[in-house]
């Protein structure tokens, strides 16, 4: 009898394609939200500055 061993199984790496896409989407959404909040704060500060200059004239 000859000893026949099965070939070694290839290691299966987990498929992270969907997970990385989800993480990328959430990172993009959070960064867009932060940019929107920063733009809103700058707009409020700009309007306040313009209002202060108008009242000083």
TrEMBL record:
TM region positions: 21-47
Pfam assignment, any one: LPAM_MltD
Keyword terms: Membrane, Transmembrane, Transmembrane helix
Ranges for domain Lytic murein transglycosylase D lipid attachment: 7-36
Entry-linked InterPro entries: MltD_lipid-attach
Protein name: Lytic murein transglycosylase D lipid attachment domain-containing protein
